[in-house]
Amino acid sequence: MSDSTTPHDGAAMSPASAGSALALAIRFHEAYERLAPRFGYETRPETRNFDPQSQNGRLMVAVCREIIEHNVEVEQLAAKTLTIPQDAIASLLQRLVPLVGHCAAAA
């Protein structure tokens, strides 16, 4: 493995994903080390300092990359699913306004 942007399976990461994954892995590691004692857990001395080139560091970056990529896919799917074209909204409102007025007059 040549760098932290290439997972073990050899598939290349996008530069944005690689940078974001590294940043997330660093934040995760720092929080993990800080919070571990509160949960009665003592971390291993050899992994207390985050090293993105170590086996542990590369694994953490790869995990963070998968999470980021999954979240991006979910957000893209949600954006496609939840997007309603403006003309569809306008058409719906044109049909609803007379109905609302008719209901109000009948009451």
Q: Which radius of gyration do the C-alpha atoms yield?
A: 25 Å
Shape: elongated
Alpha-beta classification: mainly alpha
| Portion in beta strands | under 5%
Largest sheet: none
Topology (SSEs and partners):
Blueprint: H1 15-35, H2 55-82, H3 86-106
Helix pairs in contact: 1-2
What does this structure look like?
- By secondary structure, the chain is an all-alpha fold.
- It has one domain.
- Helix content is 65%, strand content 0%.
- α1 (15-35) crosses α2 (55-82).
- The longest helix has 28 residues, at 55-82.
- Mean pLDDT is 79; it is low at 1-11.
Give a quick summary of the entry.
The chain is an all-alpha fold.
Keywords:
single chain; 107 residues; mainly alpha; 3 helices; 0% strand; disordered N terminus
